[in-house]
Amino acid sequence: MRESTVKLVELGACMYMPALNASLVEVGNGWKYGGLRSLIFCTEDSVAERDLAQALGNLSKALIRLEPASLKRFVRPRNQETLRTILSFKGLENIDGFVIPKADLSNLPDYFSLIERHERFAVMITIETATAFDLPALYRLRDYLSAHPLRDRMTAIRIGALDLLSLLGLRREPGQTIYDTPLRHVVDQMITVFRPAGFQLAASGCEFIETQELLAEELNLDLSRGLMGKTALHPDQIGVINSAYMVSRADLAMARAVNDPARPAVFRLHGRMCEKAVHANWAAGIEARANIYGVREEVDACGPVRSLDLAGLA
């Protein structure tokens, strides 16, 4: 086994692109859509069945024209047979991995048996079937993934919110974040099942393309749950998503203080208690985000950075 070289924090806005699109090479090489950090060439729901052969032909021509780039590039196959076909294409060395759609225990063994033969690929799975509503089924899926040889090559578990709403016969209304729908409970449940086992989860897409305020609100709720790598459904969402992943100066100062070996185990900063043993994972995540996305320029409402040791206080 090898650990995946693609980390969730690196994905930024993760844009889906139908494999039929004539701009696969331009986007895949980073020539178009500045700021895009990750891309998923899709042969699944974004491609009609009648157009699948054309989409695969377009993808095969594009793969051999991709150049080295910082952009993380994944392919989403339609099904196991489509994955088998894609794995025969030239140019696979130019992608980072695969996104498995509608993943559950009925299809993952077949998908994984194909990917296992190719040691270089990272994997993301998308939970977007009725499994998401079945807590025992989620635990069985978690246990299967935890024990699988591909475990260390898994970048993230993606949450397919649009498909999950479809299963309920719903579509969110204007002004609703995904957390204003019945999926709030489902997303929170997936987090509590998979995160303690060490899996990272990626945030779902927002279908309201022209309502950037709503997207920003949803991103804040994503981040409060530790979700990143949000699906971008349109290029106009890229900048909003990546900007949301910047960190505040106050949070960065707090993270650095938590990681500072000279600090005591417990201290106060910006009016909050910081405990190294408790907040180390949070601090590592903040520093990683700052290194990739930068620090947000803003007036710090917390005032100057000050600390007060709480040692001896009960």
Provide structural commentary.
This protein is of the alpha/beta class and 314 residues long. The protein folds into two domains: 237 residues, Alpha-Beta Barrel (TIM Barrel); 56 residues, no CATH class. It contains twelve helices and eleven strands. Strand 1, helix 2 and strand 2 form a beta-alpha-beta unit. The longest helix has 18 residues. The chain is globular, with a radius of gyration of 21 Å.
Which key terms come to mind for this protein?
3-stranded antiparallel beta sheet, alpha/beta, 8-stranded parallel beta sheet, 11 strands, single chain, TIM Barrel, 314 residues
Largest sheet: 8 strands, parallel
Number of helices: 12
Could you say what the CATH topology of the largest domain is called?
TIM Barrel
Mean pLDDT: 92
Instruction: Write down how many β-strands occur, each being a DSSP E stretch of 2 or more residues.
Output: 11
| Lateral strand order in the biggest sheet | 7-6-5-4-3-2-1-8
* CATH level 1 name of the largest domain: Alpha Beta
Low-confidence spans: 299-314
Estimated structural class? alpha/beta
Q: How large is the radius of gyration?
A: 21 Å
Strand content: 5-15%
Helix content: 25-40%
What is the global morphology?
A: globular
Distance between the termini: 46 Å
CATH architecture of the largest domain: Alpha-Beta Barrel
**Fourth-tier CATH superfamily name of the largest domain:** Phosphoenolpyruvate-binding domains
